């Protein structure tokens, strides 16, 4: 019984089981869902121009995300060239979309590489929270626009809760950045008590925590900097959504506009499909939301005017470019740029930091 529970809790088993169920369902209903085969056949007739533009848009989305990383780290006096943040963004995305629990591996890789660049632990945390908060803000606003202009049935609670959580996290980090002295007093007061409860040396970790907090003095993030980072974060979302928009054009031969035609959707219909897909993929039931994201895109595009055949083909084109192509590029970058270091332990990180300091 214990072995069965352990198997059910295993992430690899969950991933494999989810994909197996998806395959079984598709095979069982292949005669009732002929539009899937028709959609695959229709991919041969997709226009090459929009496909090239869609691939370019997907790459620009990654580039914008990399610029967000570069600017947030620069606010903490860690200056890294754009090609380095772009390589890390691609590699971490490949980890995130390829494996069960991929986002955790992606976060570890990002943290360790940023530490090698000289970022403090708190600066790494600052990047994760601020980039997530700003990105979530734009996702909420795009979803709100879809609801307002299209009357879409999007889970307002889901968007609202995500927005409030990210807003609270961002506000908390901003307060810490502006009040390091207060936080230092709290650490010196509370951490010894916690150590006492855990039966450890009361001063264990206090000096290290205080040293990290004092590094916040080097973080300078003005309103202008926030505006620039927000623009690049918005560009990341818009280029990603534009990839779906161009995929619809490549399949249907019609560029979605403000008004719907026969068997055609609109710009807001594409925006709604994009938001729905992001919400469906956030659960990470399968790597990269494989299966759930495609279903969400197809259902939404059909609901906003497209045929099932064209909607399925558009979803496949979008996912081949934004998921498969970008993931393959990310793994190539990882193998070439990061594989020799792999996932370093804390002692290796400290050694590399000491070597960098000595060479400087």
From TrEMBL:
InterPro entries, per database record: L-PG_synthase/AglD
GO CC list: plasma membrane
Mode of membrane association: Multi-pass membrane protein
Regions that span the bilayer: 12-29, 49-73, 121-150, 156-177, 316-336
Keywords noted in UniProt: Cell membrane, Membrane, Transmembrane, Transmembrane helix
Compartment(s) where it occurs, according to its Swiss-Prot or TrEMBL record: Cell membrane
Record flagged with keyword Membrane: yes
Principal cellular location given in the protein's record: membrane
Keyword Acyltransferase: no
Protein's recorded name: Integral membrane protein
């Amino acid at each position: 019984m214990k072995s069965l529970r352990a198997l059910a809790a295993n992430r690899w088993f969950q991933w494999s089981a989810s994909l197996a169920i998806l395959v079984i369902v598709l095979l069982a209903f292949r005669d009732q869902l002929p539009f899937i085969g028709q959609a695959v056949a229709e991919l041969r007739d997709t226009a090459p121009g929009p496909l090239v533009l869609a691939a370019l848009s997907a790459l620009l989305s990654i580039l914008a995300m990399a610029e967000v990383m570069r600017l947030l780290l620069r606010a903490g006096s860690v200056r890294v060239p754009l090609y380095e943040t772009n390589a890390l963004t691609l590699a971490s995305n490949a980890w995130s979309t390829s494996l069960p629990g991929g986002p955790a591996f992606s976060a570890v890789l990002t943290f360790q590489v940023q530490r090698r660049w000289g970022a403090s632990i708190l600066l790494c945390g600052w990047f994760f929270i601020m980039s997530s908060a700003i990105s979530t803000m734009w996702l909420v606003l795009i979803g709100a626009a879809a609801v307002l202009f299209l009357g879409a049935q999007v889970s307002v609670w889901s968007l609202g809760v995500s927005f409030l959580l990210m807003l609270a996290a961002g506000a908390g980090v901003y307060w810490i950045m502006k009040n390091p002295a207060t936080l230092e007093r709290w650490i010196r007061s509370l951490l010894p008590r916690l150590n006492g409860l855990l039966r450890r040396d009361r001063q264990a970790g206090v000096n290290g925590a205080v040293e990290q907090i004092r590094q916040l003095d080097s973080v300078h993030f003005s309103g202008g900097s926030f505006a620039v980072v927000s623009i690049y974060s918005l560009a990341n979302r818009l280029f990603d959504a534009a990839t779906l928009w161009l995929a619809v054009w490549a399949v249907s031969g019609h560029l979605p506009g403000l008004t719907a035609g026969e068997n055609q959707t609109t710009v807001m219909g594409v925006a709604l499909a994009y938001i729905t897909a992001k919400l469906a993929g956030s659960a990470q039931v399968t790597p990269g939301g494989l299966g759930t994201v495609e279903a969400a895109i197809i259902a939404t595009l059909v609901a906003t005017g497209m045929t099932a055949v064209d909607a399925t083909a558009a979803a496949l084109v979008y996912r081949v470019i934004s998921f498969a192509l970008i993931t393959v590029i990310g793994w190539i970058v990882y193998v070439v740029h990061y594989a020799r270091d792999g996932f370093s332990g804390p002692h290796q990180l400290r050694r590399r930091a000491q070597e960098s300091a000595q060479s400087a």
